[in-house]
Amino acid sequence: MNRTALTRYLTEFLQVGNYKDYAPNGLQVEGKERIKTIVTGVTACQALIDRAVELKADALLVHHGFFWKGEPEPITGMKYRRIKSLITNDINLFGYHLPLDGHPMLGNNAELARELGIIDAESVEGVAQGLVWQGRLDEPMAPSAFAEHLAGVLGRQALHLGESNKPIHRLAWCSGGAQDYIDIAVELGVDAFISGEVSERTFHSAVEQDIHYYAAGHHATERFGIRALGEHLANEFGLTHHFVDIDNPV
Q1: Would you state the torsion angle of the CA atoms of residues 227, 177, 22, 90, taken in this order, to the nearest 10 degrees?
Q2: In the predicted model, is pLDDT for residue 165 greater than 90?
Q3: I need a surface site. Which of 74, 84, 94, 124 has the fewest CB within 10 A?
Q4: Closest alpha carbon to 243 in 74, 67, 47, 40
């Protein structure tokens, strides 16, 4: 597949223009023009880039790429070594942040709902660029049972905050670092809110607003979208796809 055609397709498919983001979405480092093999992963760390080299990838697609707002601009040190590896091996780097969180078909939030068995899942319109989702469980679950369910699906134990004993039926969630959206969840009247990260203030918010909060891991809640995107591209265009999950406890 031609690099330009892939870039154009992803821009339209992921509705990049609908989001105000703090990193560029799209082609971030240019590599070879013809793309046959793609590797997907959460973050463009050195370990993932090295695996892309080993797998002879023509393109690496990630959720967390480079050139974040506020980061140092010089290409030195760690950033230099990563970019040098990509350029030396002629590998394209594509990064899609918020568009991959919010995509209605295969975004991180849509895929998280699918993996957890949440039904009637939908984005909350007009709030946080549509990145907060809500839905319900088929049957209510005790807070401890739901924590174990999360652990089974995500492969890590979630941190459960909140002191309520009420069962969990209706939920809201937002993948990644969205702990401060807990107030939105309270306004929605749900029983629990799931995100990736946690702050000191999150504990008090959960307790005082009588809501369960599950910090399930930034990486863990954002593995599914980029994998689904790679599978979609492989099926749509006959590309070879490898999803590489670099373990990350955070």
Answers
A1: -30
A2: no
A3: 74
A4: 40
Question: How far apart, in whole angstroms, are the C-alpha atoms of residue 108 and residue 99?
Answer: 9
Structure tokens at 131: 């990145």
Return left, alpha or beta for 172; rule: phi > 0 is left, psi -120 to 50 is alpha, else beta. beta
CA dihedral 72, 77, 79, 81 (to 10 degrees): 170
Task: Give how far Cα 36 sits from Cα of 57, 60, 110, 214, Å.
Answer: 8, 11, 27, 39
pLDDT band for position 164 (cuts 50, 70, 90): confident
- 63-104 pLDDT tens trace: 999 999 999 999 999 999 999 999 999 999 999 999 999 999
Average of per-residue pLDDT across 204-227: 98
